[in-house]
Amino acid sequence: MKKTFLYLATALALTACNQNSETETLAEDNSTTSVPARRTCPSEEIRAELLKNDAAARQRYNNIEAGIQNFISSDKVLSDGTVDIPVVVNVIYKTSAENISDARIAEQIAILNADFGGTNTDASKIPTEFAGVKAGDTKVRFHLIKTVRKSTTKTKWGTNDAMKKSSSGGIDATSPANYFNLWIVGNMGGILGYATFPESAGLWNDGVVIAAPYFGKTGATSPYNLGRTATHEVGHYLNLRHIWGDANCGNDLVADTPTQTGANYGKPTYPLYNTCSGTSRSVMFMNYMDYVDDAAMFMFSAGQKTRTQAVLASSGARAGLRIY
Ligand SMILES: [Zn+2]
Question: What is the 153 CA–ligand 1 centroid distance (Å)?
């Protein structure tokens, strides 16, 4: 064995660029027949040789280090696991009323933080029946990165994403893989807002659109004047479905939201019973993913929280929002 080793080591020494260091290594190896007096580990020296001689390895090394430094300096996962989502608000306005103020944008962000944090004051209205499955703090937060404004002569917008492209009179998204983009337009007819789901993560049209009258609170139009249109649409953005599963007694892919026949509107009175497959259940119409008025919705469920956490996990479709 020793002879073979010596032969290989000599052959390596002869072919090595740095014959001196190979000779030294060989000498050390020969002398260590007993337990070393001091610990030694050559990994860094071996790596230094690799990086000196292999340009591709050098490039990989630099990429890895750059990624790590970026992670350390900019990861937005707070110490308790909360994902603090960076928000870009794009305001496209014709009238001054549509040019939503910075104060109202701050108000809307605060509403999102309260609703997703479970600190909304009306959470006290959650019926005892559903208190055990309420999400409480979903560990999702939002903070404004920047506001982009653009005036327009357009009076009405649709759901064809025209507001998301400068070439069609809108504002291009800012880094949609890493920022949550929110567009505010003056008027979409009977539509309060709409969202893209996680399969659109990072695409040019990824984000949420809200009609100005239903954005924020101060000056917003009743009964959609508590900022809950944004809470609902951000729910979609984070992979939540309508609570009735968009079908008669449909499936919202969440186990703890009772099956209900369809959407609820206005301000229903609790308890409200629906019968699906012969079973009568008290339904969770106060969920943000139903269609009730802003004042009548005030909770996410624990199952919904799990879905949002999954999509924001480092392996999730919206993991890009964790780093920017
Ligand atoms: Zn919806």
Answer: 28
Burial level of 147, CB count in 10 A (0-12/13-18/19+)?
middle
Determine the pLDDT at residue 272: 98
> Could you give the number of structural domains in the chain?
1
Q: Is residue 56 part of a domain?
A: no
Distance 148 CA to ligand 1 centre (A): 25
- What's the whole-number mean pLDDT along residues 191-199? 97
The whole-number pLDDT of residue 324 equals 64
Ligand 1: distance of its center to the CA of 232 in Å?
6
CA of 242 to the centre of ligand 1 (A): 6
Interval 78-104: pLDDT, tens: 878 899 999 999 999 999 999 999 999
The answer to whether residue 151 is domain-embedded is yes
> Is residue 1 assigned to a domain?
no
**Secondary structure (3-state) at 319:** helix
pLDDT per position as a tens digit, 160-172: 999 999 999 999 9
Owning domain of residue 165: 83-242+304-322
Domain CATH code at residue 101: 3.40.390.10
d(CA 65, CA 319): 20
Residue pair 189/178 in contact by the 8 Å Cβ criterion:
no
> Which amino acid is present at 314?
S
Taking the C-alpha atoms of residue 256 and residue 216, their distance in angstroms, rounded to an integer, is 29
pTM of the predicted protein model: 0.79
Task: State in Å: Cα 236 to ligand 1 middle.
Answer: 7
Annotated catalytic sites, by residue?
233
Provide the H-helix boundaries in 185-251.
228-237
